[in-house]
Each structure stands twice: as C-alpha cells, then as structure tokens.
C-alpha cells in the first residue's frame, strides 16, 4: 500500500548561518528573481501534505511565504540536524521529508522515490537520497517516531546527520541526476547556477 501525501510533512532547512556566503541568510538570496527557500518550497509543494520552514532569523519574511516557521530548539545554530529536530517536534504526521534551502533544482520525484522503500520494508526508519553511491544526508525521509532517538543524539553532542542515522535501519535511494543535488555555498556558485539553468 502506498504512503499517502497526507501522511508526509516536509521541511525546508533554512536555519544556518550562511558563513560561506558572508553570513547572509542563504534562504533569502535571490535565484531567478525569487528567494532560494521559495524555490525549494515550490518544488516540494505537491510532493508532501504539509510544509514548514526551519529558520532562526528573518522569521517574518519566511512567514510571508504562507507556511509555518519552526525555529531550532538547540542553541547556537547547531546545524541541519537541529532543524530536522524542530520539524519532527512540530509535525503530527507519521513521516517527514527534509530538504535544504540551497538546492533549487532538486528532483520533482524526490518524495515519490524516497517513500517507495517504506512500502516494502516495515522495519525501515529512514531513506536518504544518493547519486553514484554518494549520500546526500540533508535529503531524507524518516518516520517521525525517530524524534526521541535524534534528541538523545543531539544531547550527547552529535551534529552530523549521517553519523546519526548510521545505526538506524535506513536505505539509500539512487537518483540519476547528480546536478539536481548541487548546493549553492557562495554568491559565485549562485551566479554560476543561474547562468547554467
């Protein structure tokens, strides 16, 4: 039986410090005349039943996108795992899909592919996108019952997503288009991607 869209929440992770972009809020940098986070939201729209944005500054601007904004519970910009924790605590749906704000061209069948293994494997807890055998840990789908496990990992000082899910039943899902997962770290990379697409 396939997983219903209404059972899947999505979060756009825009809670970082944007250090490599000079400390600006990366999710609000323009790409093709719209903020990066808005591009991510529009791509995720229709793939999930509910969307929120994880952000730690410019909250009012993100709320202007018309979705709920959740802030990290962890202090000091603890990274994408802290954003995932905030979204897990926020949603009451059984599944959560996470995407970063700085990958404006991720696949339109992302959730469809990430959800498929759950239908065959009842013990599966998490799926992660992969290209050529390389995992993209910020693109994952997880059961929301993983929240206590994640909270314990964060409490112990853990920060890396792949270190967190290493001991959880998970499966990598292969995608063909490696460029679709290219993230933008600098203003130069943002300009480059605009010219290419």
Automatic annotation (TrEMBL):
It is found in: Cytoplasm. It catalyses: Mo-molybdopterin + GTP + H(+) = Mo-molybdopterin guanine dinucleotide + diphosphate. Residues 10-163 form the MobA-like NTP transferase domain. The keyword GTP-binding applies. HAMAP family: MobA. The N-terminal domain determines nucleotide recognition and specific binding, while the C-terminal domain determines the specific binding to the target protein. This is Molybdenum cofactor guanylyltransferase. The gene is mobA.
